[in-house]
């Protein structure tokens, strides 16, 4: 099994991992690069990937740094399945369309005010393309085993947001875990992330890897912030 990092390296956005066996090629996550301009410009660079040979995309969750490049794949001809949890599909239906709409608005604004070096600014993709790519989605329940040729995988809850999952992938005698974004064990809205099984390799998201969350009661912290906002608004 070969794993190629196509994003999420030297930065925490643009997550894309190409997993290849002797028979199968899948992309785990398909995210946009976000943030600094030099990062966003990477969205326009062609991937070193033949989309016709890609068998499937597996999504951990809906945030755009993990899903927002899917309309680009669709625009460039990818028509394979996109496997994810049903809540992730429902969130992507909102987020991807909104992303395309905002890119169209930005392109019109740049053209009107002649901002940037392009005479005719264009969006990376438009709302229609984002909406059309939703036809590729195939939903998977947590714990459901799915096979794609010689690759097997399942999703397990990761907390974080609705539908967020870690992906446990098995092929060629190896078991690899893709953490996705992992929620906190004491979140007041989400269930805690499910512990990972024994793995041969773990690819772990590390956005907050250089700091510790405060050791406080999250319910009390949320209540204090809510009360402070209400006081500022003169409602209590």
From TrEMBL:
Residues 13-213 form the Metallo-beta-lactamase domain. It holds the Pfam family Lactamase_B. InterPro entries: MBL, Metallo-B-lactamas, RibonucZ/Hydroxyglut_hydro. It comes from the Bacteria. PANTHER family: CLEAVAGE AND POLYADENYLATION SPECIFICITY FACTOR FAMILY MEMBER, INTEGRATOR COMPLEX SUBUNIT 11. This is MBL fold metallo-hydrolase. The lineage of its organism: Bacteria, Pseudomonadati, Pseudomonadota, Gammaproteobacteria, Oceanospirillales.
